[in-house]
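Fold this sequence, please.
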Amino acid sequence: MSSDKSQLGKIFAAKSTKFHTRNVDHSLVEGLLEEGWEEFGTPLKTKTRLRKAKSHKVQFEDDIWCQLYRLGYRQLNVDETFCLPFGPTAAEKKQIDIVAVDDDTVLLVECKSSEASAKAPSYKTEFDALRLRLDGFRKSIDQTFGPGRRIKYVFASRNLRLARDSADVIRLTEAGGFYYNDNTFEYVDSLLKAYRDAAHYQFMGLLMKGLSINKDKIEVPAIEGTMGDKTYYMFSLEPQTLLKIGYVLHRTRANEAEMPTYQRLLLPSRLKGITKFIDGGGYFPNSAILNFNEREAKLEFQGQARSKDSASRTGLLKIPNAFAIAYIIDGQHRIYGYANSKFKASNTIPVVAFKNLDSGDQLELFMQINENQKAVSPTLRITLEEDLYWNASRLDSRLKALRSSVIRALGGDASGPLYNKISLGEDKAALQAKPFADALLRCKLLPEGRGNKFVDGTTATSLYEAANVDHNSEMMKARDRTVGLINACYELAEDAFKAHQDAFHTYILSNRGSFAFVSLIGDLHAFETAHGVISIKSTTDERIAALDKYLLVLFKALQTISPENAEALTGKLGSGAEATWLRIFQGYIHAKFADYNPPELQDWKERQDKALQTEGRELGTQIERHMKHFIIDQLQALFGENWDIEIGSIQRDCETRAKEQMEKNYKEGLGRQEIPWTDQFFIKDYKAIIEKYWAKRPEGKSNAQSFEQHFSVDVGHGFGSKADKIKWISLFNTLRNNWAHEGTKEKGLNKSDVDFLSKVHSKLGL
C-alpha cells in the first residue's frame, strides 16, 4: 500500500496506458521481440524503447485502479501482490486485486474479466464464503488503518454476462458485497466526466446506499406540512451533508435496480460555473426537493403543538446519517455545485423533503418541475415513458409505455444481441432509442391505440392479445413476445453476417438499418400471420422458422449489394431516408417471393417510375396552364379592363411575389428580369376566384360557360355542393407540390395520382 502522492501519480500514469513499457539495452531487443514486445518511439542512445499490450486481465485491473484514483482515493495498493488475512493462520489470507482507502471507507476489489463477451462461470463457492471472510477482513483492516471506516467488497467484472437477478449476484449482495459490472464502470466513468471531483459523492451513494456514516443522527429545525396526502418537511442543511445523504437517480443501466429513474447527468461546464458563482458570493434562494424512503431511513420528527391558524407545525427533525438515503428530485446542480466550493460546510441550502413518495410520484414530480425548464432529451423521454404510463388509464398511453419497455428490454438484456447497444436514458451507445421507437410505432408487432380504443386492423396480426382485460399481464406478455422475436432476428443476422461485419454494421446494426430491420420484421410477421402460418400462440422458434427464409434473402442481398443500391441507402439524407431503407429491404424480398408485395412497396415503386412521373407532370402542367388562361379570359370577359382591380387583393399578392422573385434572381447574379405578376398565381388563388364568381357568365355570349360549368369535376367525393364540385382543385394542389419537387421521390406521383390527373385533364376538354 502507498499514500505517497508522487508514487501514486507515477503508477496512475503507467496504468492509464494500454501497454507495458520498458527501456532495454539494444543487445536485448531481439530476444524480447520474440516474447511479444515491439519497438516504439525514437531509440535512445544506449536503450531501445519497447512496449507490449497488456492482457485483458491486467488492463481491467488497471482501469478500475485508475478509476478509483480519479475518484479521489489516495491510499492504494501499488501492485497485484497485496494479501489480506481473514483468520489467524497463515493459510487464511487472500490476494486482493485492488485496495482503496480514504477517511470514510475501504474498498476491496476483486476483478474478473474475459477477452470477449462470455457467460460467467459459477462463483457460488467464493460468494458463499464471503460473509465469513469479510468479518476477518474487517478485523485486519481495523488493526491496520484504525477502526471506524466502512468496508465494501466489490466484485468487478468485464465482458462477463452475469445478470443482477442471478443466484450468484444475490449471494454476493446478501453477503454485503457490490456487483460492479460493465454498466457500472461506464456509469462511474460518465460521472467522472460530468461531475469531475464531485463524482465521489454519487459513487459513494452507489456503493454504500443505506449504510450509516455514523450513529449520530442529523438534527435540524423543520416545518412539517402536507400536500394532498403527502407529508413533507422544510428545513436547511449544509451542502456537505446533503452530498453524502443525497442520491441522484440517473437514468442509466447501473441504476436499473432503482427503476424508475429519470435524472440527466450534469453538464461539466454548468457545474463549474455554479461553483464559481457560489464562491463569488452568489446563492440560490429556491429549495432543493428530496424524497426520503423510510424503508431505508426512518425519520423522526419531534413536533410542537399546532396553532389554530395552520395545519403545519414546527419541530426538530432527526435524519439518519447514512449514505444515499434521500433521492434528489430537483436541485442536483445546486447541491453538486457546492462540492468543490469553499462554502460547502458553512452555507445552508433550503430543502423541501417529502416522505415516502413512491417511484411513480417521484417521476411525475420530476417531469412537472422540468416541463418549463431545459427540455428532457428525446432518448430520456422515450425511456421514461415505461414508468410514466405503464399503469395509465388510457390505452394509447399504456401502449406508449409498452414500446418504451420493449426498447429497454432489448438494450438491457445481458443475454441479447442488442445488450448495451441502444442508448437508454443517460447511457450512450452505438444505436439511438428513437429508430426503435419509430419502428415499433408502425411495424405491426404492437397494435396502435387512440384514446381507449385500438385502431381498427392493428390488433389482428400483432403480438398483443386485445381480448385479455388484464392489462398489466398482457403488456408483459406482449413485451416478452416482441423482445424474443426481435432478439432472435438480430441473432440470425449476427450469424449470417459473420464474414461480412462491415455490411452488418452498416445495414443492420445502424440507426437507419435498425428502423428498417425492425419494421421489416413486423411486416413479415404480419404477412405470415395473415396467411395462418403463425399466430399469437406461436413460440419464438416457430416465428423465426416462418420468417428466416425471407430474412436470409435480405442478408444475402445486403452482402452483395449493388453500388447503386448502396448509394441509395447510405447516401440518402433527410426525413425520407428511413422509409427508403425499408422499401429497398422489402424490395429484395419481393424479388424472391412475389406474393410478398405490400401496398406501400407498390406505391413507393410507382413513385420511383420516371416515365410515370413525366406523364403526371405533363398532365399537371397542362391543367395549371389551362386554369390560368381560362380564368384570366373569363375575368376579362366579365369585367373588361378592370378585371385586375376586381381581384385586387390577389393581384397585390401576386405583384409582391413577382417583385420578391425579381430581387432573388438579381441577388443570385441573374441580372434584372421582369416578371409579370400574372405568372405568380397560386392554385389557391384560382380556387378563390372560381368560388367568388361561380355562376357568372359573360353577357352577350350564348355559348360562354360559367366557372361552375367548366370547372365542376366529379372525382368520387360526392357531387352535390359547390365544395364537392371543386374538391379536385385542393387534391390537384397537393399533387402539384409532389411533382414540383423532383428530388423528393417519396413525394412523387403514384399510378392512382396520375389516373386522377388524367381524369381531370379529360374533363376539362384538354
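The two ends are 95 Å apart (CA to CA). The first helix runs from residue 5 to 15.
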